[in-house]
Amino acid sequence: MSELNIGLIGSGSISDSHLQAYRANPRAKLLAICDMNEERARNMAGKYDIPHVYTDYRELLANSDVQAVSICTWNNSHAAISIDALEAGKQVLCEKPLCITVDEALQMQQAVERTGNLLQVGYVRRHASNIAVLRKFIDAGELGEIYFAKASLIRRLGNPGGWFADKARSGGGPLIDIGVHVIDLCWYLMGRPKVKSVSGNIYAKLGNRSNIENYAFYQAADYDASFNTVEDMANALIRFENGASLMVDVSFSLHAKQNSALVNIYGDKGGAEIEPALSIVTERHNTILNIDPQITSPGFDFQGGFQNEIDHFVASCLDGVPPISPVEDGVEMIKILNAIYESAAEGREIHF
Ligand SMILES: NC(=O)c1ccc[n+]([C@@H]2O[C@H](COP(=O)([O-])OP(=O)(O)OC[C@H]3O[C@@H](n4cnc5c(N)ncnc54)[C@H](O)[C@@H]3O)[C@@H](O)[C@H]2O)c1
């Protein structure tokens, strides 16, 4: 097989990054697109010259020429659409988070095992070019044993509203939407250790701060200032069986002085700061060194990450390259996220 026929389901904001990347991949052919909002699907079809347009994803899956699909819908539909796609014989790239509940996640994993088809989870940050650089240092043992990581994504005012603010469609707020990216990235770089316990807190104190004037922030297409059922912020401590730990805090609304992003990992031979820019810290001849790699994108290059993710997906489908983010990793993250919500609701540590 030299070319892969692609269908995309959910032609909203993030679909543009998928479609751009497929168009730039010489072995991918954009064949079909679907959105329950027909106008949105037709607009994207026009922009990317996609011949088949659907409003029901089942009809797209019934098109036997489609070999692989990108799923870019609301989180509450990832499981059903992925399972139907796998059963229809398609290879699947499913946006993060894998789904909402642990039950759904396990059903998705079973569908992968049953059908023998591929499901790659859309952990785009694993595919960032600065992460490929850092992996070389980690794989060469230059950070030693990574025993602590810290991840923080703080938005002082940044609840996008719409379906993101509707727990029934999103599964939660900043924890499941943006926390998933950085928890996964740390866990991946730490060598995917087995989780031992999780202790979390969630807060809904400020709401979406729709009273704030003169401060612009991203809003979903169906933004409604009066509707919000998700948390403002979450924090958690995750302990691993190997003794390592990960601390995380994320927010959509917080009385913080500024927005901030920080992802740091620490080993017994060296550490690394990943956000906002890659920097490696180590020690040589009794002297501390901060090493700033001279690379084109020291920070997270958004579209570059998507290009790498989609190039990897196409190579996995056509050449059998093992996926960097298989369904099992999606399942583990859904267990962690749900345990954080459970810990917060019950006010106790959850043991795995
Ligand atoms: N990897 C990243 O960095 C990243 C960034 C943004 C969003 N995402 C993920 O991508 C997904 C989509 O987010 P978005 O920002 O594009 O949202 P969006 O609201 O802009 O687009 C979602 C689209 O899906 C359509 N849709 C929903 N359910 C459908 C169904 N059952 N059948 C057909 N169409 C359906 C909606 O009509 C909408 O057009 C979410 O899971 C989100 O978490 C990932």
Automatic annotation (TrEMBL):
Residues 4-123 form the Gfo/Idh/MocA-like oxidoreductase N-terminal domain. Residues 135-350 form the Gfo/Idh/MocA-like oxidoreductase C-terminal domain. Pfam families: GFO_IDH_MocA, GFO_IDH_MocA_C. GO terms for molecular function: nucleotide binding. InterPro entries: Gfo/Idh/MocA-like_OxRdtase_C (IPR004104), Gfo/Idh/MocA-like_OxRdtase_N (IPR000683), Gfo/Idh/MocA_Oxidoreductase (IPR052515), NAD(P)-bd_dom_sf (IPR036291). Coiled coil: none annotated. Belongs to the Gfo/Idh/MocA family. This is Gfo/Idh/MocA family oxidoreductase. It comes from Paenibacillus mellifer.
